[in-house]
Design goal:
alpha/beta, 6-stranded mixed beta sheet, 4-stranded antiparallel beta sheet, 10 strands, binds adenosine-5'-triphosphate, cell membrane, transport, phosphonate transport, ATP binding
């Protein structure tokens, strides 16, 4: 992987028709950093995350993931890079009527040949890896539980376990705590921080809750109307910066 940044955006703009979701954004994220993306609704946080995981390409500018310019990669190499970046979405995209083990195994699907992938739906593969990931997220006992019988917070943990079996270099989380209560939010953020501390994985999290951004991350990037208003260590975030960021 080398000592360079894990993510690099150089003069990146991203448009959707007439909408400028991001305008001239530059940013570099080093391995192991914990970065929060904050800003008002529509500021471009989700778009920035989708550039970091290669699911979106910029309209102009360069996106470099793990040293590779995503615009210059063959589809196969691009998929390989994308597998090194795991994303947890607010909608977990778990299949409710399957056992948790199958959903966690889905994290392998991009790597497994089709036959093995299909067979894995019938007969769980790599059960130990799935069990280990579930233990890491604190729900080891749910391996064979039906996914839709889990609570919201447990489903979120199962979705995180699915990302962990990918063994990504970085974990991106798009508003992971918006739909859970304060106690679960703290527990999930504790878990994400502990995972990044023990595994050295880079974390990039979009958050609506500034207090969590400040408490759990080392660095805060403030986005407003598609532009980076500030990008500072957490200790340097001030009241004035936040007022300017969220000003109506
Ligand atoms: N696929 C798309 N097609 C058209 N417009 C889009 C698309 N994705 C995002 N946008 C627009 O780009 C802008 C930035 O959206 P984005 O979802 O990145 O913001 P956000 O900061 O994540 O917002 P929120 O906090 O509400 O989730 C918005 O104006 C949005 O409507």
């Amino acid at each position: 992987m080398g000592a360079g940044p894990i993510f690099q955006l150089e003069g990146v703009s991203c448009r959707f028709g007439a909408v400028a979701a991001l305008t001239d954004c530059s940013l570099a994220i080093a391995p192991g950093e914990r970065v929060a993306l904050i800003g008002p609704s529509g500021a471009g946080k989700s778009t920035l995350l989708s550039l970091l995981n290669g699911s979106q390409t910029p309209t102009t500018g360069r996106v470099v993931i793990l040293g590779q310019d995503v615009n210059r990669l063959s589809p196969r190499k691009r998929r390989r890079i994308q597998r090194l970046v795991g994303t947890v979405y607010q909608q977990h995209h778990l299949v409710g009527n399957l056992a948790v083990v199958h959903n966690v195994n889905a994290g392998h699907l991009g790597r497994w040949p089709l036959l093995r992938a299909l067979w894995s739906l019938v007969w769980p593969q790599q059960v130990q890896t799935a069990a280990q990931a579930l233990a890491q997220v604190g729900i080891a006992d749910k391996l064979y539980a039906r996914t839709d019988r889990l609570s919201g917070g447990q489903q979120q943990r199962a979705a995180l376990a699915r990302v962990l079996v990918q063994d990504p270099a970085a974990i991106l989380a798009d508003e992971p705590i918006s739909s859970v209560d304060p106690e679960r939010s703290r527990a999930l953020m504790d878990l994400l921080r502990q995972l990044s501390e023990t595994t050295g994985k880079t974390l990039v999290i979009s958050l609506h809750e500034v207090e969590f951004a400040v408490k759990y991350c080392d660095r805060v990037v403030g986005l407003r109307q598609g532009q980076i208003l500030f990008d500072v260590p957490t200790t340097e975030v001030s009241e004035t910066m936040l007022t300017d960021l969220y000003r109506l």
